[in-house]
Amino acid sequence: MTITRYMNTAETPVGLSSAKTTYFSSINKHLDSANQALSAVDADNQHVNIDNLAHQDSGFELSKQERYALFDSQGMGRDFIRRHIREERKSFTSAEQHQLALIASRHMLAEIQQQNAQHVALYFSHDGELATEKLIEALWHIGVKTYLPIIHPFCPGHLLFCHYHSESVLVRNKFGISEPKLNVQDVLPTPKLDMIVTPLVAFDGACNRMGMGGGYYDRTLKHSVDNKPFAVGFAHDCQQVSHLPVECWDVPLPLVITPTRRLARN
């Protein structure tokens, strides 16, 4: 897969008209501090110099010929879309995964600071998802409290969010994903979270979200009132598709951040 710098002259792709799209081609007031926080926790990084990215166009795209060749998912079933996009996001090399995650983390960190979020839920990446480890460490560095989801032990299909810190004990859940060992003193009620950074498999131009199929985040987000907590999708650019088959239980996201774009639902 050819990865090149994103070009400023590119036009908005067809299919994004239902969401306000911002390309990361300029600096906002929070990017420099986000850059410093990530540099502080990734000083030994050999793949990308984060400091040098502070004044460059950040993000990566497919080659110019394929840049806007969104996967045409019209008429396709959810399972087929999931399989395809999971393979796409796993096709990056480990070096590319690391670099793309750092770029996207820089913009997510700037968004968190812009929202003045102090209690942020994230996830541990697997299956080719954008990695969050350095983002979590950067949040610790600037004093933001972080939380990770755990599968609710008494309410099947639901999540709890536990404070995650440097001394947290991690265990593997039934999906093989690390989560904090349950301690009721570490549980924060979902309405008290300022932001939830959500994993996803696919999204479309209207910020509709498709997960792995368990419905955990849909059940969590359907109780949000006035975007509290504020849910932000975190994904590779290749996870965008032309169309998602939406079910009645699906909860769209107000915002999706990729290495190159900020898509805000109208």
List the helices and strands and how they pair.
Blueprint: E1 4-5, E2 19-23, H1 31-41, H2 50-53, E3 60-61, H3 78-89, H4 94-114, E4 119-121, H5 133-141, E5 145-151, E6 159-164, E7 170-172, E8 178-180, E9 195-198, E10 202-203, E11 209-210, H6 216-221, E12 230-234, E13 255-257, E14 261-265
Parallel strand pairs: 4-5, 4-9, 9-12, 12-13
Antiparallel strand pairs: 1-3, 2-14, 5-6, 7-8, 10-11, 13-14
From the spread of the alpha carbons, the general shape counts as: globular
What does the radius of gyration come to?
18 Å
Low-confidence stretches: 1-17, 46-68
How many angstroms does the end-to-end distance come to? 33 Å
Q: What is the H/E order?
A: EEHHEHHEHEEEEEEEHEEE
Mean pLDDT, nearest integer?
Answer: 81
Taken as a percent bin, the fraction of beta residues is 15-25%
* Proportion of helical residues: 10-25%
Q: Describe it for me?
A:
By secondary structure, this protein is of the alpha/beta class. It has helices at residues 31-41, 50-53, 78-89, 94-114, 133-141, 216-221; strands spanning 4-5, 19-23, 60-61, 119-121, 145-151, 159-164, 170-172, 178-180, 195-198, 202-203, 209-210, 230-234, 255-257, 261-265. It has an eight-stranded mixed β-sheet with strand order 2-14-13-12-9-4-5-6. Helix 1 crosses helix 4 (94-114) and helix 4 (94-114) runs parallel beside helix 5 (133-141). It is globular, with a radius of gyration of 18 Å. It starts with a strand and ends with a strand. Mean pLDDT is 81; it is low at 1-17 and 46-68.
